[in-house]
User: Fold these one by one.
Assistant:
Number 1:
Amino acid sequence: MDEKKDSREEKGHLHPLTHVIRHMVGIFRELGFAVAEGPEIETEHYNFDALNIPKDHPARDMWDTFWLKPKSAGKLLRTHTSPVQIRYMEKHKPPIRIVVPGKVFRYEATDATHEAQFYQLEGLLIDKNISLAHLKGVLGKFFEGLFGRHTSVRLRPSYFPFVEPGVEVDVSCFKCEGKGCGLCKESGWIEIMGAGMVHPNVLRGVGIDEREWQGFAFGIGIDRVAMLKYGIDDIRLLYQGDLRVVNQF
Amino acid sequence: MTISYNWLQSFFKEKLPAPEKVAMLLTMHAFEVESFEKKGDDTIFEIAILPNRAHDCLSHRGVARELAAIFSLGIRNQKSGIKNIQITQNKLSVRIEDEKLCRRYIGRMIENVKVGTSPSWLRERLESIGQKSINNVVDATNYVMFHLGQPMHAFDAGKLVSPEIIVRKVRDGERITTLDKKEAALASDTLVIADGESVLAIAGIKGGTKAEVNESTKNIILESANFEPSNIRRAAQKTGIRTDSSKRFEQGITPELSLEAMALATELIIEIAGGKETRVGDMIDQYPRPGAPYKVGVSLEEINSLLGLSLREGEVKTIFDRLGFPYEILDPIKKVLLLAPTFAGISYKHGASVVYDAPRAFDCSSFTAYLYAQAGVAIPRISVDQYVFGREVPLEEIAAGDLIFSNTHEGTQHEKSVDFFPGTPVPESIDHVGLFLGDGMVIHASRHNGSGEVMSEKFKESKAFAHIVGVRSMYKGGKRFVVTVPRERLDIRIPYDLIEEIGRMHGYGDIPETVPNIPQKNEIESSIFYQNAIREILASEGFSEVYTYTFVGKQGAQKQPELENPLAADKAFLRSTLATEFFEKFETNAYYADLLGIDTVKIFEIGRVFDTHGEREVLCIGVKRVKKNKKAIPAEDMLKGTLEKLSLALGVGEPLMSAEAIKIHKENMSAFVELPLEELFANVDRNAVKKLFDEQKIFSPSPDVSYRPLSKYPFIARDIAVFVPESVDADELGVLIKNTAGQNLVRHRLFDTFEKDGKKSFAFRLIFQSYEKTLSDEEVNAVMAQVSGAFEANDGWKVR
């Protein structure tokens, strides 16, 4: 057998997370969003303080953090892609529309649904008179593109220090279309992301006057979407470099 | 938090809706009810109280208040007053040494109590939410905490050296034995409750055994106090003791609650532990700095603009009423003008606080800030910040309600803003502000007014306004709702907070989906575009993409950032190279080569690597041949060929890397290269890449793949070779294999063909694996016999 021919002919495969990230980015590009990136090693300032999460505030408990040695230097692995919002707003004046895909880290024991590293996609839109209705509108378009069908968006009260009002976003189950099934635990809804209107403290901190501009931000776990879409039952499979998984995509 | 339905019911005259409905509506309007379960005649909810509501909702009354707002119910007034009790003459004294860390301390002596078991109703209440009953006095304090949210403590008064409570910082070397009999060293800055001799309790966190209340206790001292949150949080972290009490204090609760809690606890203890001889002392209330309630304003326009709704004034009023938020609707400028003259004569105090000193004392800018706050307009506290914050008005167009800024050259000179957009230059420099009342009159607080007070005067004649820097308008909107924020709602401080209250109580359900105007699409960022072009190129060259871990062990001599808190010793560092992971992935994937149907493991990853200076993005490409084969291209040559292709496609001119950069492991038949992307991208020809790749195509929907989970059972490989007549092709054999090899066949692959004497030989490798069990040799042999049989059933086919 001609080995040369064999190994050249077989096409390689992209990682499922790459597929999902590209899909998401593609949808937001059509909605006029630019793509931004930022460092994985962050400072306490960008990861917390600038996001209205002060030191010694219990809200910090929401993010279990990996700190770099020495801790006194205040360097950490970003716990979310939100610091990129701040870095971007410092350099760009509104109107702003960005999505930020990237790797984030949480100090937590790993199991089938938890990893110490995973991917998030952050979104930020700042303009005149932007409201929760626009958040719903943009997310409606996003889910429609992501799941390939019409979905409903449901907002519930929640809390993230960098937004106010803060909301939990549920999307009607793309599998059963809201009738109730195993995937959505019979509820018809899938809890899919956190979002809200950007907190005035965050805007002011980067020199944006909240009397003139307002906007929304959201963050979605990419791994979870990939797992939901493809029925991958263990998040750790995404980071094993295992071609038995990757070569299926 | 664990919440009892029956306990909630005790706050209402009306019957609450069914637990299912309560759970659903709390989730949609307040916070998520994670689960609920029937327990006897009660239902127990697990509620994820949001962190910003931990101030007021880590209690049954807090949740009951939410229900009252959601269902428009009235909360029942609590029992009030203690009747028919004897007063003790023995005086308790309370001394707070650090007023910043202890905002309020109410102590009360109760004498001649009978410590014993609690009545069954109290035991049941506490047990229903998973709390253990200890004794009637301790249970009463715990009940108050879960009822109202105020942590309390009871001390055995007989065990104190004298009836004196001191709230102070820990002294060097002081230790405590906590109620659970553990010795704890106390870090400096920890606040403690002590008698004249030693530590009785870690303030707000846990009591000690020294003054423990037990069956022999006769007289008790009750504590209902308020401690500064971040100090409690630090102390709890340092001592490693987190309690129901510390959790509440570290979130911050209103000091106003202490009084109500003390009244309720006293009443309860008299009821369940009291007798004829019981005597109650006065409340000894140390409350050094009571604050005024906050006022927060919002306009209908602001509400609708942020929520994307078109609520009417009446709807907003109803929601504030349901929430129990007192409010006025007013024209802010009129309110400011009406209010200002009423403070004439109030004394001047430099640095007066808007919350704690107003309206008993003002300085110039606390006066203006206070006036606007009362009118529901939040303006900065410092004069220079008010100047930067306000809208510029020419002096000749000055209107009543505008602020006039001047420089008297006597006060603190501010040449840039302090808190509002800090650092904004104000070269003119500002040290004074007053409110223009109209008719040429200004009102302002100044040390030079009379004996140092608020005074109005003709502003043309005013010395303080001899050097006017400018005029600013603070507000240009219309009427505002001005809410007097209930004391317990520490989360409501700005208009956005009120808007959230309106939004969640109204419900987010009928907010429409409105897509904002979509601007012209810009070209996609180069780095994102190139990364994905590289992925396309490599995939077409047969490479599969992997994502590996950032956390690794020590990687040779390289300087890697180290974690303060690693999950495991072999994950204590950030990777400085992907090489280690790649050489490992080569082996694990080579093991599955047959299952994967590959001869070569070809992988790549785009990711960050780190050194002590920072991070950079790299592209790693690796090749490993699975089996020795002299005829095959060596791994390193394959890699070089790939790099040439990559260079060509990206238009970077010469091949990407010199041969030396490729790491070769001859004995493993593998090769690896790591390329820093920033340098590479600097040389990419965007037009060349654009010719090859279309953005739209790259960022297209993820494929609809039906993913097969991995089997945890081993696979078995079997080869079969067969001579067939010349006219037969391999596909025909493939079909036959598929049809006869059964459901456990996962892959078949042609690996050898030759012709001899007018016959063809095909050799296939069949891979078997089950999802249910480990396949035995016998089972697979039987399947192979079937395949053989099926082959030989054809004329002229001969299995070798």
Number 2:
Amino acid sequence: MKFLAASISNFKLLRNVRMDFATDGQRPLTIVRAENASGKTSALNALRWGLFGVGGLEDPNVRLSPADWPDGSPCEIRVAIDFEHTLYKQMGGETRSTRDRYRLIRTTVERLNGDKFVREPERLSLYKLGRKGADPLDTPEARLSEMLPSEMKDIFFTDGDKAMNFISSELTRTTRRDQVKEAIKSLLGVGLLEDAAKHVKQVQSKLTRDAGSLSGSNESKTVAGNLEQAKAKLQDVKQQRSDLVKQIDTLSVQLDAAERALEAALQMGKYEELVQRRTAAKTAFERAEKMEEEFKVEHQNLLGDEALSWTLLRRELARGVERLNELQLKGVIPRAAVPVLRDRLELNRCICGASLEPGTQARSNVEALIEAQRAVDSERQTLTRLLHMAQSHTPEESDPASDWVTRFKRLELKRLQALKMREAAEGELRYCEEKLKEIDQADIQSKRAHRDALRSSIHDKEDRRRDLEVDEREWTAKIAELEQRFEELTRTDQKLKAVRAKLLATKDVLTVLEASLEELQNVYLKKVSDRMSELFLEMVGADPEQGSIFQRASISPEYEILVHTAQGRTLNPDHEVNGASQRALTFAFIWALTEVSGVAAPRVIDTPLGMMAGAVKRRVLEIISRPDKGAQDSEKQVVLFLTRSEIAQADDILDDRAGKVITFTNTDHYPTDLVNDPRSSTPQILTCDCTHRQVCGICQRKYDAEYGLVLRGPIAAVTSHAS
Amino acid sequence: MSVPQRQLIETITQQCERIEERFPKYRKRLLESIAEIVAVERSHMISHTNVVQKIADQCEALGDLLARDAKEK
């Protein structure tokens, strides 16, 4: 299928729009240049609706008519598409093709009533265009479906932003995998095979029931009944397990979010770390306080120490002792020490060893000496006592280490250190307490509780899933047993011979359908995966042989899109791949699907180059617009809806590859963005023939100078009427 | 004919070859029945039909052939 032209009436703001499409295989691009809210998505949806009806829309319940259409007044919505289609037929061992032109016209009428609307059933007409005019064709839906199956609508008509859903972490893993699986199935049309298998199973069940009721044997009837029940039960268990897997996936996404939220709340004040720091600061503070107290006591003791007196009075005391010694030398102070003499008398022995026993002369001499001492005046006694004290108590010159001053200085240093430690600990304690106050404890507890609840729920569901897996195995084994038993019972029952044959034939049909389904999915999964990898690496400019990080991309047997590094690691595209590469990856996937499908149909993409810039954007555009090799009259056709910023820095590629360019302008953008008043009484999309390098009186915008666009003439060719 | 359609036919044909040849040309009849079933499903996609009955007819017809062959033996 190749589009030739489309005309759209009253589809949203596309009140009266005509589009011509590029048909030259060497310049296969049709560019619809339109800024945001200028009809790009509406045009994409209009084409989808034209081809597939409401089933082609994402939401069949959305209003199609312009928003300002008056209530109660019928609004006819019309999309007409002229296209070519090539039909291939096998004739006499040869493949022959015929190409014909067609026009489809899909219409409906809506009546609005405030926010509500009523839509009449759609009408579809299909005409074959020939020299003699337009021949209406019967069964237009069936014919269209043959040309472009509806299962392929999402592959060939793509919203660039929504395509990101194939890898988006906002969706559950199951949903992403299902989307990829559905996309691959749709290009194969295997939905048809799945339906066929499902219907054959229904036939099988009916035949089993028939066998049961025809059989003369009660046991056959019972086994047939049990077999049906077992199959129903198995189906139920499979459905429950499938539902549980989806629930677990959903909860896992929620758990991820809950864990991130909790982490963020904890990180806000690094709660756990602050608590530890506060405890350490408190301990340090108490220790420093205790040390300070000890040093204070030591200080007090030091001030009361006798050594302080000696330190302060040493010089004066030394002069005093010297004077006493002089007095002793002069004989002013008695040499003999009375207490010493008395001690000797008590001991009855002199220091020299002489006996001082009573009655001895020596004793008499000592007693006479003591008597003589008594006669000395009190001052001399005092001096004598002082002399004795000085001789016995005067400390030696102390060593510097134990000198009081040294000790004092050392203590002072320690006190200062303890003070600083206390102050530092106090500061740390205050900081931690302030920070901890900022943290909303209640919020953390609530988030923690939520996370724990999710974990618990997932755990319970995982347990249940495992139970269901066991049930599934048991029911499968039970069914096998019952089938075998049924087979044995019916084999000998002649009345059931015919039914048995039908059951066998049905079983063969089912085996072929199911095996075909599996093989097709595997074969095509690999084809799409391989082609996606080639395209992706080319788009991001990665060359594995040159040591680039990206080695390849793939779709796993579980239908997950993955990226692999040179080190053998697997990257999650949503978290571990940059934005431009993510876009390129989803693009590569969709492009691979369209190529592998082999279906010749226009590839229509809305905003394909968003989030891409520079080299990646250029490579993607170059790849998707590359003409088919060697084909001058190729089927390839690509329609891109692009904004000015997407086109910027890729103009040269469009110069070369764009066969048609059309610009959409929303009249409502005056005066905010449009330079000229479009003079339209109703908001609508106007078109003009400006190329990607031009602007005109209709489409000129205030910031066009940024893009180096050239104004073409004061009066531009207008292909849509402003009413 | 698109690649998937060709691939579909090829794959179904290959899978039929793996089924036991229960009587001469059984595989060929099996393939024809399945082709009819696929056609019935296609029609059903466009306009609803009693698809299960039509598929049942195909399976039963094949089964009748099988039963007749067994009787003849």
